[in-house]
Predict the structure.
Amino acid sequence: MMRKTIVLFVATLLTANVLRAQDADTTVSPLQHGFALGIGTGASAPIPIPNRISEMSWTPRLCVLVGYDLRYQFGPKTGLKTGLQVKHVGMSAEAKVYQMFTQAIIDESEVSGYFTGYNETVLHATYISLPVQFSFSPNNNWTFDAGLYLARKLQGHFSGAVSSGYIRITDPTGEKVEVGYEPFDFSEFIAPFNYGLEITATRSFGERWAAWFDLSWALNSTFKEAFRGLEYKMYNIYGLFGVDYRL
């Protein structure tokens, strides 16, 4: 699916360049394209935060975006924006939890149950993303884009540990097993695709340069539907600042 999407995108780009060349004699071309570079931060988190989580601390990790943008203006105020983006996101968190369902390796055996104690996690992932956004430009300086994105995971890592507590095997009243420090790794359960909403605000500085802020909010879980290591879904929510250079 992603391969077909990329082929379609390249075909669209080639067509756009031909059309732009044909329109070279006009004062303003309806087609714009260029490169984007951005940095930011965010989190992959449950929404809302479960009431079984307390004393939570979140540590941001640097997120980076490198992209190619293609914009077509229908008129002076409206248009359509797409492109390809390579986005690396990540975060780490620590929390005290109460009867949180999880899976862990204890005494070389995998167990499932309800854990009370401390939980720490680290996540980082790289995606190639295809946004499709409608544009509105109230004036020559500002442009606002809103739409959807579809992202394909290139690589992902999610690991952590449970510590300083106990786990009730199978159910909240099951056998109690003390937990000192037990690591886990759920990297294989990160979903191959991620999709959601994306909004962007762009401020132009002349014909070539622009600064922007972008917020993406996933509508599907970071993990596969079959994943049972956590009892709640987590969603990628990341904001980035960056610059555009228009060709």
Notes: The chain has one domain: 30-246. The helical segments are 2-22. The two ends are 29 Å apart (CA to CA).
